[in-house]
Design goal:
By secondary structure, the protein is α/β, with parallel strands linked by helices. It is 46% helix and 13% strand. The structure holds adenosine monophosphate and zinc ion (ZN).
Length: 504
């Protein structure tokens, strides 16, 4: 596996600290509102990284936090006249619902800042004792960046040219800072704010301290990989390194991965511009699988644009992801039908091993086929399987990995047609194609085993309207609706158990 490391600005071979084990930490959302589609980008891309590494045989400890104390949470609580902890609890619950709806596997641990205050106080005290932090008159504790010679190594900024990070916490006692870039480790509580007692003053920790306490605690020491959106490189991740490394003398993380930003209509997405889209809103129109496919169609280090038509109803990017998604689903459905297989349960790890082993054993034996068309197909399929894995091994190039999958679908569709038109049969070939698509399903977390609930609401409405028309003996209307459905690639069949549908 090669990973582009923000620290060295190079693609490097990935060597874990402990063989076959990966300790990774991804900065999670600040929970003051529903998560937006930008927050979903690190969630999805690093979830695929995790799934791929697990598929490749690693044990992955995947930690992602919820920032549950912050100015934005406090402001929201004041607006709603409730406790900050109620706001945080509510939006953690909502974030988990959204993560599930976009197929994100739950992290191994999801620590919360407010449950780790003791550890943060301990770290801050240790930094004071070692001369890396200092307290000013009002009780604010700052990290002294001049005490850490490597400050700026992640963002590749030189200490003199550093500008104050836009996300730095607004502090009291600012004038008493020794250096312009010194950042807050602890700050006194304002009237009515949540607070914890500490040796410094009654107050709360700064944002940059939580991750460098939670990450090593839950990962068990230094990290292999630390990840998040590119806005976090400076100051957040730079400040995490400064605290952890000056306190322990050890490297905080060997590889730093950062995703580029998701933009909306080619603009920055922000609340003030009013162009903010929540995951919840998007998922109500397109399902989580389609949304994932869209996210993964671009490499995680390239900016990704999301747009919405002027009528505010459709997104061209998601419409095209939807068409591709349905094409893959139909292909899998037809393969299952031809093989007379039930859809497998991919959540069962044994099933995953079986899929992979069987596809490799088919691959080992395919030279036995004398029919040139079949043996050529096997060869191409193997090539695309290897391309799929190689591309993911190349700094998680999901965009090119997906292209390999679409080629597999093209080949499968050609043989499905041959089966339908010429009664072509070769179970091993169909099995191999099916297994490759199910491996794709597992690694990308995109469910392509067609389920009834994946039928979108527009089609569902049409099917219901047709049933209604038939009930009212309006057969002309019923036939018209059948025709409309056919134009959308849906064939319906009236059976004794009710209306059945399939994609063509
Ligand atoms: P926040 O709640 O702002 O701390 O963000 C949580 C995570 O989402 C961080 O890793 C951010 O870098 C990431 N993030 C926020 N906005 C975007 C965006 N528009 N595109 C990609 N990642 C984002
Ligand atoms: Zn963080």
């Amino acid at each position: 596996m090669k990973i582009y490391n923000t620290l060295t600005l190079k693609k490097e071979d990935f060597v874990p600290i402990e063989k076959n084990k990966i300790r990774m930490y991804v900065c999670g959302p600040t929970v003051y509102d529903l998560i937006h589609i930008g927050n979903a980008r690190p969630m999805i891309v690093f979830d695929v990284f995790r799934r791929f590494m697990e598929f490749s045989g690693y044990e992955v400890i995947y930690v992602s936090n919820f920032t549950d104390i912050d100015d934005k949470i406090i402001n929201r609580a004041n607006e709603e006249k409730v406790d900050a902890s109620d706001v945080a609890k509510k939006y953690i619950k909502e974030a988990i619902i959204d993560m599930e709806s976009i197929g994100v596997k739950m992290p191994t641990f999801t620590p919360k800042a407010t449950e780790e205050i003791d550890g943060m106080i301990e770290l801050i005290q240790s930094l004071i004792n070692k001369g890396h932090a200092y307290k000013v008159d009002d009780g604010t504790v700052y990290f002294d960046v001049s005490s850490f010679k490597e400050y700026g190594k992640l963002s590749h900024k030189n200490l003199d040219e550093l500008i104050e990070g836009v996300r730095d916490i607004k502090v009291t006692g600012k004038d008493q800072k020794k250096n312009f870039n010194d950042f807050v480790l602890w700050k006194p509580a304002k009237e009515g704010e949540p607070k914890w007692s500490s040796p410094f003053c009654e107050g709360r920790p700064g944002w940059h301290t939580e991750c460098c306490v939670m990450a090593p605690k839950y990962c068990g020491g230094s990290l292999d990989i630390h990840a998040g959106g590119e806005d976090l490189i400076f100051p957040h991740h730079e400040n995490e390194i400064a605290q952890y490394e000056s306190n322990t003398g050890k490297t905080f993380a060997n590889y730093w991965m950062h995703n580029a930003f998701l933009r909306i209509n080619n603009e920055k997405m922000s609340k003030s511009l009013g162009n903010f889209k929540t995951v919840r809103e998007i998922i109500s129109k397109y399902n989580g699988n389609i949304f994932r496919l869209f996210m993964l169609s671009t490499h995680y280090r390239s900016p990704l644009n999301f747009s919405i038509d002027s009528d505010g109803k459709k997104s061209p990017e998601l419409e095209s992801a939807k068409a591709i998604y349905q094409r893959v689903c139909t292909c899998v459905e037809r393969l299952l039908e031809i093989l007379n297989f039930d859809a497998p349960n991919l959540d069962d790890p044994k099933e995953q091993i079986k899929l992979y082993d069987t596809s490799i054993s088919i691959e080992d034996n395919f030279l036995e086929y004398s029919d040139k068309d079949i043996s050529d197909a096997f060869k191409s399929l193997k090539g695309f399987r290897m391309q799929f894995v190689d591309k993911l091994n190349d700094d998680l190039n999901t965009a090119d990995a997906l292209t390999a999958i679409y080629e597999i679908v093209n080949i499968a569709n050609r043989f499905i047609k041959k089966h339908d038109e010429e009664k072509f049969a070769c179970d091993d070939l169909f099995k191999y194609m099916l297994y490759l698509l199910l491996i794709f399903n597992k690694v990308m977390g995109i469910n392509v085993i067609n389920k009834k609930e994946d039928l979108d609401s527009e089609i569902e409405d049409l099917i219901n309207a047709r049933s209604e028309a038939k009930k009212n003996k309006d057969f002309k209307k019923a036939d018209e609706i059948r025709e409309t459905l056919l134009n959308k690639g849906i064939v319906i069949e009236d059976t004794r158990e009710g209306v059945k549908w399939k994609r063509v």
